[in-house]
Design goal:
Elements: H1 15-31, H2 34-45, H3 54-67, E1 68-76, E2 84-95, H4 99-109, E3 113-116, E4 123-128, H5 131-146, H6 152-169, H7 176-190, H8 204-221
Antiparallel strand pairs: 1-2, 2-4, 3-4
């Protein structure tokens, strides 16, 4: 980073940078043109393009092992039959001073976007939530560079994530029985933190009961159709 953008502990990312980042992401959402997005990120943070040697890829694997995560978020909604939306996601967080690492991971995977983490002073987050990109780009990187050296807990998490993506690919999230008895238990197993005030579901039972109630309501509304 240029010295003008290097932050000391406690300092915030300048609003100008945040505005530029927001604008770049908005433009990318419309164009879906990754090369232009990469250039915008380089320009915003004063970065050089990556030389992704095999040695550097192994470094990035260690970085992702330590700072990255595979997650499945949940949101309630009123538009779908089961009234719940599950969102598999790969993410990596880093202080803005280390944005070079996020950019390098993004270049290696050839997808994703970098955003400011809400509520933080200077933390950025790289996210990939497109299921096709997760299967075709993120999982192969894990298989080749991370799993051979990764910790057992993260290998277990990876295995669960793969099962979930496979179920989504088979449209299991649209089926009541598979959602309740297959997907939700895997989602609950992947949750790292529970008993928080802002969580969508307090427990697996809570999630299952919610979906059961949604299914009962749906059947009642459509029993004569």
């Amino acid at each position: 980073l240029p010295l003008t953008l290097y932050l000391k502990p406690g300092e915030r990312i300048p609003q100008k940078i945040l505005d530029q980042l927001k604008e770049a992401n908005a433009k990318y959402s419309k164009s879906h043109h990754f090369p232009d997005y990469k250039k915008d990120i380089r320009d915003i943070f004063g970065l050089k393009d990556c030389q992704l040697t095999e040695k550097y890829k192994h470094y990035l694997a260690g970085f992702v092992e330590g700072e990255g995560s595979l997650n499945v978020g949940a949101k309630k909604n009123t538009t779908s039959r089961l009234r719940v939306y599950l969102d598999p996601e790969f993410s990596v967080t880093q202080h803005v001073n280390g944005v070079k690492n996020l950019y390098a991971v993004m270049c290696e995977l050839q997808t994703g976007r970098i955003r400011h983490k809400t509520g933080s002073n200077a933390t950025l987050i790289l996210t990939i939530d497109n299921r096709r990109s997760l299967v075709e780009k993120v999982l192969p990187f894990y298989q080749k560079y991370i799993l051979p050296f990764g910790s057992d807990p993260k290998k277990r998490r990876y295995d669960i994530f793969v099962k979930l993506l496979d179920l989504f690919d088979k449209k299991a999230h649209l089926d009541y029985d598979q959602m309740v008895h297959e997907i939700l238990p895997l989602y609950d197993e992947m949750r790292c933190q529970k008993a928080q005030s802002n969580q969508v579901f307090t427990s697996l039972q809570d999630a299952q009961d919610y979906v059961k109630a949604a299914e009962i309501a749906y059947r009642a509304q459509n029993k004569d159709k």
